[in-house]
């Protein structure tokens, strides 16, 4: 009686076979208590709380606490957590020279991969990945330092002086301050922009076993240093099929506008199986219904349009093209039949544009939000006594055994 359970590991040991599942279309790589996702129904929950409620009610730091600890904090717990993050936002001063070693025009994602990885050289000997306390230490450090690293990567790429964190500000306001403050003129953070950014960070905070999170788990499964592990996650996120899509959306809209060709040409290309061109910001591996994050952020995007936030005429043109694409894709048989809805990156790209965030910082902001998800998943894995080093198998399709041929005989 009761549900029948199959121990896949012992099946493999006894029968010696394993599954072949390219792209992990139907293979779970772990158990997790962090994020629940139902792609068919369009449901996303962090620790059981619906994303819609968290986006509306919670702050990014409160969501970080929830993801890391499993429960929403009470007032005292939140205060202590915020204080812990605030007091760790500075970088070791030597790291400044590390930034200076990059090419001036380096993409901020490239700089971030390097700098976050380099943090492992500061925090290694005294960090035990098997100690919950040390893991939380690393988690707080990463969440706290990421905005500083992100903003400094941008400032360096523009040849602008670094701005130190101002710990009287909120997490999101502090990031905007480090991005946009100038020594000559005081910068006041726009509260609407602060709120929009905080909400976007909440929406990006975790998304179970996506490519970058799976990278983090695989890299961490060898008991590697957490800062090096998160650098691996940032590298995976950078690709245009994943977090790089928000930047690619704007590049695509620009290409469409500059080409002078009708949008239908691009739609036809996206449908052509021989053409590698895809509509950036459309489709999702698991959401075969509308991405609930896209639903929330779409509302913000349309509010910004209604409030005339896009005053820059170039941005306005990009926005018009985006809205035309959205309409076509929601009606076109090809996109409808394949459930290729606009995803969260489609709208976040447009919102960042309206907020005046530079294009090469779009994916960086995704990384900023996702850091807590990566580190929560890593912490969960390291705390599980049953976890193992990740070691996928392969189906070998190469040559049969053959003898070495001396070079003069080839
Ligand atoms: N434009 C045109 N056609 C598409 C698109 C697209 N954006 N996405 C998928 N398709 C088509 C495929 O050609 C395929 O068609 P077929 O059935 O005729 O062969 C079908 O839809 C299924 O596509 P797959 O590639 O099998 O879907 P997969 O789940 O592997 O890919 C992915 C998901 C990578 C997100 C894909 O939709 C894509 O490349 N989208 C554009 C990039 C993007 O926006 N990425 C962000 C993802 S969300 C995130 O990271 C937060």
- Estimate the strand proportion: under 5%
Broad structural category: mainly alpha
**Radius of gyration, CA atoms, in whole angstroms:** 23 Å
State the end-to-end CA separation: 65 Å
Question: Order of strands in the sheet with the most strands?
Answer: 1-2-3
Largest sheet: 3 strands, antiparallel
Instruction: List the bound ligands.
Output: acetyl coenzyme *A
Summarize model confidence as the mean pLDDT: 91
Q: What proportion of the residues is helical, as a percent range?
A: 40-55%
DSSP summary, beta strand count = 3
Estimate the global geometry from the Cα principal axes: globular
> What is the H/E string?
HEEEHHHHHHHHHHHHHHHHH
| Low-confidence runs | none
The number of helical runs is 18
Catalytic activity: oxaloacetate + acetyl-CoA + H2O = citrate + CoA + H(+)
Protein name: Citrate synthase
Pfam families: Citrate_synt
Pathway: Carbohydrate metabolism; tricarboxylic acid cycle; isocitrate from oxaloacetate: step 1/2
């Amino acid at each position: 009686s009761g549900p029948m359970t199959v121990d896949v590991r012992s099946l493999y040991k006894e029968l010696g076979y394993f599954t072949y599942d390219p792209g992990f279309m139907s293979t779970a790589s772990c158990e997790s208590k962090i994020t629940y996702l139902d792609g068919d129904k369009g449901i996303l929950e962090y620790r059981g709380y619906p994303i819609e409620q968290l986006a509306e009610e919670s702050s990014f730091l409160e969501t970080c606490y929830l993801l890391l600890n499993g429960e929403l904090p009470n007032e005292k717990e939140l205060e202590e957590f915020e204080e812990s993050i605030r007091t760790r936002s500075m970088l070791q001063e030597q790291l400044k020279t590390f930034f200076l070693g990059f090419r001036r025009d380096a993409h901020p994602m490239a700089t971030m991969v390097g700098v976050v990885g380099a943090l492992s050289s500061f925090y290694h000997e005294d960090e035990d990945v098997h100690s919950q306390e040390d893991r939380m230490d690393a988690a707080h450090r990463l969440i706290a330092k990421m905005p500083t690293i992100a903003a400094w990567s941008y400032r360096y790429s523009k040849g602008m002086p670094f701005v130190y964190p101002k710990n009287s500000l909120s997490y999101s306001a502090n990031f905007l301050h480090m991005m946009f403050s100038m020594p000559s003129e005081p910068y006041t953070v726009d509260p609407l922009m602060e709120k929009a950014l905080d909400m976007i960070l909440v929406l990006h905070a975790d998304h179970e076993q996506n490519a970058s999170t799976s990278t983090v788990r695989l890299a961490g499964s060898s008991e590697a240093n957490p800062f090096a592990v998160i650098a691996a996650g940032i590298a995976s996120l950078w690709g245009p099929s994943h977090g790089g899509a928000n930047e690619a959306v704007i590049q695509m809209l620009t290409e469409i506008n500059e080409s002078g060709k009708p949008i239908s040409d691009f739609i036809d290309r996206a449908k052509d199986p021989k053409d590698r061109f895809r509509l950036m910001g459309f489709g999702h591996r698991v959401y075969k219904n509308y991405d609930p994050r896209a639903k929330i952020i779409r509302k913000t995007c349309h509010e910004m349009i209604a409030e005339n936030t896009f005053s820059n005429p170039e941005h306005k043109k990009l926005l018009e093209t985006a809205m035309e694409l959205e309409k076509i894709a929601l009606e076109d048989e090809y996109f409808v039949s394949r459930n290729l809805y606009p995803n969260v990156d489609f709208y976040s790209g447009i919102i960042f544009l309206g907020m005046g965030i530079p294009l090469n910082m779009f994916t960086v902001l995704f990384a900023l939000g996702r850091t807590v998800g990566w580190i929560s998943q890593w912490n969960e894995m390291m705390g599980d006594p049953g976890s193992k080093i990740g070691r996928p198998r392969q189906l070998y399709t190469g040559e049969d055994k053959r003898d070495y041929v001396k070079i003069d005989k080839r």
